[in-house]
Amino acid sequence: MSLDTAVTTPFPNVYDAESIPAGARSEIDRLLQSGDLFRYTAPADAPVALLEHEFAALMGSKYALAVSSCSAALFLSLKALGLQPGARVLIPAFTFAAVPSSIVHAGCTPVLCEVGENYRIDVDHFRDLMGQNIEAVMISHMRGHTSDMDAIVAEANARGIPVIEDAAHSLGTTWDGRNIGTIGKIGCFSFQSYKMVNAGEGGILISDDADVMAQAIIMSGAYEHNWRKHGVDAALEAAFARWQNQLPLYNLRLGNLSAAVIRPQLPELARRVRDGRRNHDHVADQLNLSPWIDVPAKLEPEVRAPDSIQFNLVGMNDAEIAAYADAAAARGVKVQVFGASKDNARAFWNWQFLKDLPELPRTRAMLMKACDVRLPARLSLAECDMIADALVRAAQDVMGNVRAFA
Prior knowledge:
Elements: H1 23-34, H2 47-59, E1 63-67, H3 70-80, E2 88-92, H4 98-105, E3 109-113, H5 123-130, E4 134-140, H6 149-159, E5 163-166, E6 174-175, E7 178-179, E8 186-190, E9 203-207, H7 210-221, H8 234-243, H9 256-262, H10 269-287, E10 293-294, E11 302-303, E12 308-313, H11 318-330, E13 336-337, H12 361-367, E14 370-374, H13 381-399
Parallel strand pairs: 2-3, 2-4, 4-5, 5-8
Antiparallel strand pairs: 1-9, 6-7, 6-11, 8-9, 10-12, 12-14, 13-14
Helix pairs in contact: 1-9, 2-9, 3-4, 3-7, 5-6, 7-8, 10-13, 11-13
């Protein structure tokens, strides 16, 4: 890329998702003709049930449960762990508001952990908090950035504390060769439109624990004996027998139309992950040439599946950071500075529904300079060049035409 090359082609649209594969259309037409939209109408092989089997196989998990959102998956995970009211659940302070919200809905108490400039859990603060009556850990791999899962799981296992992975942004990411979402007791994923697999809304949770899964299935809305339509092995059947009629129903099911949209996208995942990583790294290399921009490096065991890019502004005060966002917008790129908005749902101080919000200086300082830009896997490298050029030039607009070279 040359910063001196004039841009003559249309600026890329980063907000549209990839089109739904043509293979979905015949199944959607069949469902519309039959009206068979409820997951439990068919005696077997409903689209939602097929999606669960396919997703579990893709991830290498025993069980999967498709639900209405990733938030629903997180909520059901907490309920299925049998946590008592008020149980303290540790989360990163850098996450989306839906994460602490799911904990509140489950009657538990979020405990916020510091996050460093690389967007990952501060392991020292994590260890300190784990000695303070924590009963569960919910690790958000926020924007696909994986915290040190070796340290987190080792600490949790040593204390007998279950780990839930909020992998909403991490479908396709691996840690030391293992799929993210399979490292903790439960993994939760999103099918919202800005994720690698798009159904508009929807989520799924996975686990190898039959007792956890049986509870989650019943509470998701498998009334009477509809749990049989999930496919039953001996461990699940025994767990269902224990929990039948013992649990409330929250009715958080996914519908067949959503499953019909999701299933043809699963074979596309590997390509999307590959292209998303290519685009991210291509742009990151160019941004890191600027003295005003830093894209934090990944952790060594992590192989990412990004569809956006995050970077920190270097050597800018608050006014200059605000000016940078305006300059980038003028050049065609919307930059979200996580901490700059009074209502950004990813800035922990805006979670006013929580009592006694802590002051977390490291996380706050990071959020005040951390930027977020959409970078879909469908973009070409030429389009990525245009975005990178605009982001670098915006910094020069604000801070002066200083060049740095790797």
